[in-house]
Structures
1.
Amino acid sequence: MGTIQSIMDIKILKMNIYNLKTMSFKYIFFLLVTTCISMQAQKVKVKKGDILVDKVKVGHIEKIKVKNDSLNEAFYKIVDNSGRHVFNFRNEFIVSPLFLDDKKYFFHTIEYVIKGKRAAVQDPKYYPTEKQMAKYLISSNLLDNDGVNDSAIEEFIISKDILPPNLQKIVKEEEELKAYASFKVDRLISDPVFVFFDRTTSGTSAVSDGMVTKSRYNIFQGIKDPKTNEFISKTFIGYAIAEDFITSEKVGWSTNPPKDYRPNPKDNYKLIVYNIKGVPLASYQFLTYKTYHPYEIFGPTKTDLRGINSVEERIKYIGGDLIEKNIL
């Protein structure tokens, strides 16, 4: 009889534990739902610079313009209710390790002024308006009517990098590719340069966000038999891409141009020359010729390129110049 009673007691105990767990789970779930609803119910507004949460002021935002001979920009200054300057929001950029000033990556940062620490804004949907900045501060629990939240500052600023994760990945990949900037194919440097059209595709520009046609030309050095005009030797040393913005007049309404499409030599296309590893070495556009590694800019009077209309001949000239500079 005692054994039966013990079994029943164990079953009752198990049921009580199960009920307690269920109630605890329901209670925790209720708290989470209530908290989420409470957060969603908060109305964040910016009125004459004052940051209001449910009509209660928690801080103030002000646009600060910086202008001098070398700088012309603006940032947003945040002060708490005591008037203490606590945060700055900025729009920033870094230059591409591969294309340098020809390509810039833009991103947004928040700075905790008291410690002088900047970090990337951690919301991929963020865009720089006063209301979005206010929402970011409130949703991240960085600011309330009592001032700043130290634990949130640690989580969203102190422990974060200045570059957002996607840019960190891009920069790392470009730096790894840049290591091959000095790579050169083993061949006889004195051999003549030859350029041949390969194909045309379309895609995003290498240096901007626009859609372009990409006409590829392969660059070789070699020797031809003067009697047959056939190559005795030929070495692939690099390639060039002529980027031309897509227009209906050029390729129709399709974003897929014919494979044999070539840019008009008189058009304002951008020409980029790469080594065989895919590292950009030089470019030409708007009468400006530049090399990337090392970075040098040559104006229209410094080269003969402006007098050359043929795409192939321009590439041949650049290829020869890069070989002479020991870059290609």
Note: Residues 44-177 form one domain.
2.
Amino acid sequence: MNGKMAPDLRGYYERTKQAFLSDPDICPENRELFTEFFAFEEHKLKRVNGLPDIDNGCCKTLLGYITRMSNVNLWFQNKPWRDLTKEDIQRVYDDLEEGRIKRRDGQPFQDRSSYYNKIFKSKPFRLAGKDGLAKDVIEFSTNSPKIVRYVTEESFRRLVSVVRNPVHQLLLWLAWDIGENIQTLLALTREDFISQVNRHSGEREYIVNLPASKLKRSRLSRSEVTLYPETARWLDLVLPSAPLNDGYLFNSGYRAAAKMLAKAVATSGATSMPHGDPLRWKDLRSGMACHLLRAGWTRDEVNARLGQPIRRDTRSTRPANHRKSLPNQTLGPVAELADAADLTPAWRLNESICCQSCPPCCWISNQLTDHSAQSRDFSVESVQIAC
């Protein structure tokens, strides 16, 4: 780990957009339409999100549009979109629904609704004057039920048992313990961690700062305490050699992290529930949520730890020694966690982070302590702690 900063998505997006809009295999009429769309969408994203310029989150959205529009253009055999007929749209729609249009891996497209809602019935086809035809054709469509894949603690421990690199161990434990997505974890720096001692167990633990700039837009900026002693031990080992001044803790990008996980999965044989599929990074997040539900956390408390929007006040009845009672059992899917109707509120601390190590849902803010010199004195305007 040398602390090299990950590349910004803006440059990658601009290069990809330029290549897409100048692709000689796309007819000139469609290149002109696509150029008009991206000028509109960039302006829209800046205004909707209150930004002076597009950021990484915007670029990720725009890159998704490049992929979808490239696919749709291929499905219509590069015919100018302004010349499409109802029969053309009907053919593509039926081929998608009946599985004749397949992905590169030979499987039918599962996210068909995203194509219907973001391309066919939205601005791209509106610019071509065909959104009305698309709405007439796509009168009946159903979303395939989404199966939530998750990992049990037993499978997770089998997974980490075959990993030898301390930095890789830390990344896996943070994904399981904190429950954020892999892109956010890869963006963490040394300054995002504050060491403290749990006043109930006497063990070292860490507060992990999750600022808005490193999160998906739909998630709350917050600070979470580590629950597992293994996470703290790997942080103790890795942090002293981590770069200062906002250098990334993990030098590798997503591809390297995905390759590492795939190798560990192949070696350990760890699989996800409920169908025994190979583990993905996102399965650790849902597995953490399942595990905490089984441990007695309420749905509201788990949603708060996942960074879901806050709606109403709830109080926790969990004992202060909850970290010692996390069960090692197989848990059920957590599709219900997406429901944001019943969620825990948050307190915003403006002066310092509470080091009183109560359960995450009932931390208190009136007893503060100085942090050690190795941890930066945070300004925590963005930290939200569930109460």
Note: Residues 1-6, 313-325, 327-387 have pLDDT under 50 and may be disordered.
3.
Amino acid sequence: MGILAVLSDEDYQEIENFLTSFSKLKELCENEPSILASIFTSDDSLIDVCVQCVSSYCYLNDTLRNSNETILLNFDQYFIENFRDFENRYIFVCLIYSSKKINPDASEHINKILKGLDKETCKFWSNLPNLRSSMKIEWEDHNEKAKEYIKYFSHAETFGNGLMIYLQNDNRLKNYLSNLEGDGIFDENSIEYADKGFELMSSIYSLDDLFNSEESEFYIHDENYYKIDLKGLFRRRELIPHVMVPQKLSSGETSDLKVSMYSLLREAHRAFLFGAYFAAISMLRSVMEVLLRDHYGLGGVNANGLPKSLYEMIEDAEGLLPERVWTFHLHRIRKKANQILHGYYRKDSRSKEESIADIEIEIVECIHTLRHLIEGIPRS
């Protein structure tokens, strides 16, 4: 199921608003954000264009992130390219300039910042989301939030009752939580986190499946069934980047029971979500092979008349890869999967949390690489 099936008319209008505003922005600066920064300091009439771009981007990004699916089908490639271009190169400058409208008293200070922006500075900020240090900060942030989400879930009895109310999809959940606050069990912030926790849980599970329909038994709290790391579950759900699949890749098989780029990527996301790290890396390797062989046209035979190996397909991909993806990114996924397959992968001797953070960040980096590979597939 693709996100386009649930987009509202308002969502489509926001897409049009974004494309129109961003097109105007690129035209004004000849598609170079550092030039835009210098224009902004002398022409306040551009502020509305900048604010519209930021507003539309944030609205659409929230819509995508709040979807129950992490893989979103049937997107127009022109929209994907512009959305990611704004995200990667423009948003930093535009956020600074938009703040002039929010806080006019800071205009002089903001102008000084904008005057100091050159091409290299803009390039640095555009690459920041992909830097390991930035991803570690993001991991720690989501880990702390996950700790708050599970405070409520640690009370099995109240959690089961609350979840049953949540499943009924009415307004009684917050009233139920408020009563618990009155009993001194939770404070106001915990209630908000609990509500977010239910929202996350519903995006991970088909919640009805978690209950025994006859006895209303919540399986997570049945130690004879299975245990789930709720904190890790919530953290990893927030870490998984959503993937917008272009229309040309969305027309194939999407059944989970058929091997395809979609089903393999979905399995990789699921494996990572539940903390099956090695399975996730192995599945990501399979996704990459299917992409290169079937969608980048790099399959076939080598000079010896044998089917090309994944190594050979990666080497042949030079010059065909989208921006922000190089062959060494693909070889890194291949090598990690091979190490796991042959039993060479070893964890280091650091603390458990440090090791978990490192491997989760590594996997998220791999998912980002494949997202670029999927969203940036050549049009022809």
Note: The first strand starts at residue 71 and ends at 75.
